[in-house]
Design a protein that fits this description.
Radius of gyration of chain A: 26 Å
CATH class of the largest domain in chain A: Mainly Alpha
Oligomer: heterodimer
Main location (chain A): membrane
Largest sheet of chain B: 5 strands, antiparallel
Helix content of chain B: 55-70%
Number of helices of chain A: 14
Structural class of chain B: alpha+beta
Structural class of chain A: mainly alpha
Mean pLDDT of chain B: 82
CATH architecture of the largest domain in chain B: Orthogonal Bundle
Pfam families (chain A): BPD_transp_1 (PF00528)
Shape of chain B: elongated
Helix content of chain A: over 70%
Protein name (chain A): Maltose ABC transporter membrane protein /trehalose ABC transporter membrane protein /sucrose ABC transporter membrane protein
Distance between the termini of chain B: 33 Å
Distance between the termini of chain A: 52 Å
Radius of gyration of chain B: 33 Å
Low-confidence stretches of chain B: 1-5
CATH superfamily of the largest domain in chain A: MetI-like
GO cellular component, one term (chain A): plasma membrane
Strand content of chain B: 5-15%
Number of domains of chain A: 2
Organism (chain A): Paracoccus homiensis
Number of helices of chain B: 14
Strand order of the largest sheet of chain B: 2-3-7-6-5
Chain lengths: 331, 377
């Protein structure tokens, strides 16, 4: 109950603080430069130069403190030793290049990067196309979209249950092993099955992200002008040809957007690996490796930051691409 | 679509079946968890959840009574008892491990020198012998029994109280609500400035917001943890609220700006001409009109904060009293790896609220996604 009041009062203070800032600062501005009297025009002009910064102030403060400053600080730390007391140049990075776990993480991240966006987009496209053509499509969409609302940790539990292993001869309570034994195979401990265990982890993220891809792609598919499709059908194109040669090329831009958005999620993937294998059995990924260096045993902030910076470098191309697209649109 | 009628209806069928399979594939994992959370421990361990709606078969053996339990009945020595317990029903039985289901209920068999054993459908058995029994341990009767499907809410009671999930639920709520409300306010003002005010540097700021959208959270962890320690916030609710506000802001500003740019120019211009201040325009016109976008972001942020594990682990303490639900779940996965009734129930509790929000507000979520990806990208 105490907690409840703490939360409520925080919201109250937070909301009140925000409103007070915006309202108060505006009022102060209007008092200093009153929009009437002899210099009204001049005052309004001056006030309008300052006002945007009052509106933007808190946002800029937060963005700088919580996103911009950390990037710079991480960069600085990655060039220092574990506690940040001594400058070590690029030692942390050269150490990374030689470290087995880092190489494993890079390899796995690249695998994730190839598999997850591709499969999610593919399944999303199939799901969009199928559900757009049936009567109960909206219910179907909701159900495929649903994993989006489930936490990575929750999804981890869900899928670990599916991969559950019981010794041969016992009743299999994991769905996958049950199917495998029914088909005459031997039960496997899927999560320790190097290198395939990586794919069993990826499936979890594909399961989550497909709904997202489906929603976006379905909207794009519906935006395709009818005439192009009708023309193709009149020319005798089969449904598959219409889909592959008319529809898909027209939504390439959206596919690219979906792909890059999922790519970002994949690069940062942490929770799934953290709770399902914790990077054991050859499944380590960058985000989890970084967490290890930050919190396990004696923290090494230098190496942890270096890994974070590697992540940052990996997302930079997408960042640049996004910014260029956004600017094109503004013009 | 034209083409021959026959072809068309086949195609419709194929599409329906494929869609059904796909939906099934995507639903089954969650369904399994949901069903399992209502099963009791023994049943989860003994059969797959997909078998939980039919009677479950169990095998085992019981021992008969010994000499002491024997009674004399007209020249025969008799031991009587029951091999089933609770709501089990007997399907088959046997006397040897090699063939444990050799006999049907009601059958009689001779074990050795005149000993007769009968086991009935209700589980009662009768072992008779013309001579007094001489055995220290009872005879083994192997049984195959069926248990009717059984569901319970006991797991939920146990998990909410004994495993501390009730407390974690409150913690999660405490983290989530302020972390959802505060960024909305801050972002709304900033978005309005970026969308409708003229000032130098607007384009660069907008681009910066787009850029910050993809900055990996991991980069922020070490610097912010140290910063929080240095300025005295330390680990706690305040820290995590601030952190989530910071991390959620780029998306909030971006979504809201994109939406506000699309609002009709005339309305805002005419309000300005009428002498409304920017603050009034914002409060009376922009905020009400932007409700769909505000709702979209609120859902995003709510789901994201509620489901987050990393930020909570780093910025909130890790004692039992401080854990959020994802944290408890993670701990349970480590400590109660095989106890699926606990794991399934806890997981379901932790995903129930997001699922409710998801299904209730799906419209806004989809709108937000479309605004965030198709338009901007």
């Amino acid at each position: 109950m105490e907690l409840f009041w703490l939360a409520i009062s925080t919201i109250a203070i937070g909301v009140f603080g925000c409103v007070a800032w915006f309202w108060g600062s505006n009022m102060v501005l209007d008092t200093i430069y009153p929009p009437k009297g002899p210099n009204a025009g001049d005052n309004i002009r001056k006030a309008n130069q300052i006002r945007p910064w009052l509106f933007l102030g808190p946002a800029i403060l937060f963005l700088t403190m919580y996103l911009v400053y950390p990037v710079i600080d991480s960069l600085w730390r990655s060039l220092h030793n574990s506690t940040g007391s001594r400058f070590v140049g690029v030692d942390n990075y050269t150490w990374l290049l030689g470290d087995g776990k880092f190489r494993e993480s890079m390899r796995n991240n690249m695998l994730w990067l190839l598999v997850v966006p591709a499969l999610s987009t593919l399944f999303g496209l199939i799901a969009a196309q199928l559900t757009d053509r049936i009567r109960w499509g909206n219910i179907g969409k909701s159900l495929i979209f649903m994993p989006m609302a489930i936490s990575f940790v929750g999804a981890g539990v869900i899928w670990k249950f599916i991969y559950e292993f019981r010794a041969e001869g016992e009743t299999q309570i994991g769905l996958l092993n049950w199917i495998v034994t029914r088909l005459g195979g031997d039960p496997q401990i899927w999560l320790t099955l190097i290198p395939w265990n990586n794919f069993f982890l990826m499936i979890v993220l594909v399961w989550i992200q497909t709904g997202f891809a489906m929603v976006i792609l379905s909207a794009a598919l519906r935006g395709i002008p009818e005439e192009t499709i009708e023309a193709a059908i009149l020319d005798g194109a089969s449904p598959l040809q219409v889909f592959m040669k008319i529809k898909v090329p027209q939504i390439m831009g959206t596919i690219a957007v979906v792909w890059t958005t999922i790519t970002i999620v994949v690069l940062k993937v942490f929770d799934i690996v953290f709770v399902m294998t914790n990077g054991q059995w050859g499944t380590q990924v960058l985000a989890n490796l970084m967490y290890d260096w930050m919190f396990r045993g004696s923290p090494d902030y230098g190496r942890g930051s270096a890994i974070a910076i590697v992540l940052m470098i990996l997302v930079t191309p997408i960042m640049v691409w996004n910014i260029r697209n956004a600017r094109k649109e503004v013009r | 679509m034209d083409g021959m009628a026959g072809q068309k209806s086949t195609l419709v069928w194929v599409v329906n079946i494929c869609a059904f399979l796909l939906v099934l594939l995507w639903t089954i994992p969650t369904l399994g968890l949901f069903v399992s959370s209502f099963r009791d421990r023994d049943q989860i361990a003994n059969s797959g959840w997909w078998q939980s709606f039919s009677a479950a078969e169990q095998t085992g053996f019981v021992r008969t009574g010994t000499d002491d339990d024997a009674v004399q009945e007209g020249g025969l020595y008799v031991i009587e008892g029951n091999v089933t317990e609770g709501d089990q029903t007997l399907v088959a039985w046997g006397t040897g491990a090699r063939d444990p289901a050799r006999f049907q209920p009601g059958d009689t068999t001779e074990i050795e020198d005149g000993w007769q054993l009968t086991v009935n459908a209700d589980g009662s058995y009768r072992l008779t012998s013309p001579e007094p029994f001489e055995m220290r341990r009872g005879e083994r009767i192997f049984t195959t029994t069926e248990v009717p499907p059984k569901f319970t809410t006991g797991n939920y009671q146990r998990v909410l109280t004994a495993e501390g999930l009730g407390r974690a639920f409150m913690n999660t709520l405490t983290v989530t609500i302020p972390a959802t409300v505060i960024p909305i306010l801050i972002a709304a003002f900033a978005a309005y400035a970026l969308a409708w005010m003229e000032f130098p540097g607007r384009a660069i700021l907008t681009a910066a917001v787009v850029g910050l959208l993809v900055v990996p959270l991991q980069v922020s962890l070490i610097p912010l943890l140290r910063l929080h320690n240095e300025i005295g916030i330390g680990k706690g609710y305040l820290g995590i609220w601030l952190a989530h506000t910071g991390f959620g802001l780029p998306l909030a500003v971006y979504l809201l700006r994109n939406y506000m740019v699309g609002l009709p120019r005339e309305v805002i211009e005419s309000a300005r001409v009428d002498g409304a201040t920017e603050f009034q325009i914002f409060r009376r016109i922009i905020l009400p009109l932007s409700f769909p976008a505000l709702a979209s972001f609120a859902i995003f942020q709510f789901l994201w904060v509620w489901n987050d594990l990393l930020v909570a682990t780093v910025f909130l303490g890790n004692t039992r009293e401080q854990l959020v639900m994802t944290g408890v779940l993670r701990e349970l996965m480590g400590s109660k790896g095989g106890e699926w009734e606990i794991l399934a129930t806890s997981a379901f509790i932790s995903i129930a609220v997001p699922l409710i929000v998801f299904f209730a507000m799906q419209k806004y979520l989809v709108r937000g996604l479309l605004a965030g990806s198709v338009k901007g990208g």
